[in-house]
Batch of 2 targets.
Target 1
Amino acid sequence: MSNNFQYYSPTKVIFGKDTEAQVGALVKEQNCKKVLVHFGGQSAVKSGLIDKVKASLDETGVAHVELGGVVPNPHIAKVYEGIELCKKEGVDFILAVGGGSVIDSAKAIAYGLAYDGDVWDLFAGKGIKAPGCFPLGSVLTISAAGSETSNSCVITDEKTGLKRSYNDNIARPKFAIMDPELTKTLPDYQTESGCTDIMMHTMERYFTNGGNLELTDSLAEGLLRTVIKYAKILHTEPDNYEARAEIMWAGSLAHNDLTGCGNNGGDFASHLLEHEMGGMFDVTHGAGLAAVWPSWARYVYKDCLPRFVKYAVNVMGVTPAATDEETALKGIEAMEEFYHAIGMPINFKELGIAPTAEQKAQMADSCAQACGGSKGSAKKLYRDDFLAIYNMADV
Ligand code: NZQ
Ligand code: ZN
């Protein structure tokens, strides 16, 4: 039985080669006075994209200021800096040029501009709802987080190492410019981490014990098979435009809620587990997910067996074994083989982290704090379960 649902995906998508040239016109449509051009460390400057974006804004007569320097697992300090700058300059539209980290930093600035208190309040789990959000748009440079159409925003307090999310439909971007060509400069590790994250956004919605629609499942399985196919191609042919286009489109559809319509909100325990790893060890998000998912899957599969069997057969192409449990395990093994085939880790050692017992306990405590005690639909997990999964991944 499927659940009732709302599907809200208002972001205008402009997809294809050279679409970044339309950015000035798109921003102008928003009737704003001044734009903050927000970007990351150096890739968008080095590729000439920032110059192109500024030229397009100039052509359409849109005033702008800029703020770069967003780091992966973006910091709250940069958000504060952005809020100050926007207030001083009278900015009323934020344009993110980059990936999930830049878009999330832009979302947090947009929230902060509409909130009198400390914007971290929204992320700190105090139950505060954002009173508003300034409008934003993006020029996407990496297919991964799906933030270009999602309602989610993930920020790290670099002083405490806490990485926290805040979800609200008011932050869904006005537009997303998606030119697959722009992702060709990515290192393979980032491309494949992105593919892993994309799959995980749909897998989190797929492995549930509550409500499923056949159509939603078919969309999810088709998306997952597509990412598996093209992630492998990109591992050896990074310049393959068609593969980059398939992955980029999958990245948005995987996390704009389409592949969860009718379920019970999804599982999202793997993301919870990874966010603690990201906050403590600054690992790349998708790689962190690959390193923890197999342990999560082995820990929970018996409690969500029909879905694991369906996944094994329909997504991983496994021939059903004598028992459902064996089929499910073959599906998990096939995922591990896939991760290895695209250069992704399947445990902490391969990820390059070696947390102490104390650090694992700290991450498990923090998971429980962040989710208010328990998380998961495939299996409801508590603090000791989080710790058990970290221990399983720690080989
Ligand atoms: O800073 P620069 O120099 O631009 O380098 C970036 C960064 O080092 C580089 N990069 C981006 N585009 C490039 C490029 N390098 C060469 N060529 C290009 N075209 O890639 C690195 C990673 O960028 P980042 O934005 O961090 O990647 P991603 O999109 O994976 O975002 C990860 C962040 O998003 C959060 C993650 O937790 C993490 O903080 N997430 C956000 C979500 C959301 N808002 O909906 C959902 C996700 O589950 C995720 O949690
Ligand atoms: Zn993710």
Target 2
Amino acid sequence: MRILIVEDEEHLASAVAQGLRAEGFTVDISSDGTDGLWRARELSYDLILLDLLLPGSNGFQICATLRAEENWVPILMLTAKDGEFDEAEALDTGADDFLSKPFSFVVLLARIRALLRRGRRERPAVLSAGDLTLDPAEHRCRRGDVAIALTPREFSLLECLMRFAGEAVSKRDLLMHVWGDDFEGDPNIVEVYAGYLRRKIDQAFGRAALETVRGIGYRIDASGG
Ligand code: CA
């Protein structure tokens, strides 16, 4: 397994590289964004450890560029600042996971192994099901050329369904991803919001993309309904 580390802090990069080599990985180090992007494009890696703040292109730009080019190499983003905004943005730009510095090598290794097991997973920057599109980074939803205004909760619910377009997503998973693990209200809230969504993305256009899967949950028709 070959890993690329794009990190401008030399000590950190070489310590991580040394640890990974001891675990049997082949490791390349790149200390700036421009070279890192070049390597990621030209050479074949099984995973990229990508620092957020870099000379040259930053981690977000590199990640978004690779995903726009349909390069789905697993990316673990290293964020120096510990903030929710960064984490959300890291995932929006197409990173598979993130870890805030400082981190322990054991945790890093566990995350790397988990990503490698999962393999390449398409995380398109813009999700689509037929003419229904959702851009998480820009927070935009459209049906063809028509913009649809969604509340944050509606947006999050639709995003969750569109990441698995064509597959049924259980109500429990939707509750967990959209309302959080600690939600203690009425689980029927999912149905209420599915109703709101249906009005906005389907009924307003005479379509039926959001399907109820009896006894399970919901599915977005991959063709857009
Ligand atoms: Ca840095």
